[in-house]
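Technical note accompanying the year-one report. For the benefit of new consortium partners, we illustrate the data format agreed upon in the data management plan: each record pairs a sequence with a structure-token string. No post-processing was applied to the example shown here.
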Amino acid sequence: MNKEKLKSEILNAVEEYVAKPEVWEEAQLTIDPSGAVDIVEIEEADDLPVNIDVYAMMDLVEMTPDGRWIPDIDTIEEIVKEK
């Protein structure tokens, strides 16, 4: 799996989430064995096969001092290192 591509895909998904967090109740980021990244609700994540990695989206964001949600690059990089 190409780590730079994976990082980019995760970052895109997190940016999509922070652009409209109100759309989601309990968003989860999923990564399948091929490296495909998606955002699903927690109920959907519970039904996924065990080979799909699931991360709580709130673990992948941080709040700026002015109250904006942004991607947590350190956490994203840790996930990519694990892959």
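Partners are asked to follow this layout when depositing records. Strands lie at 27-31, 37-41, 53-56, 61-63, 69-71.
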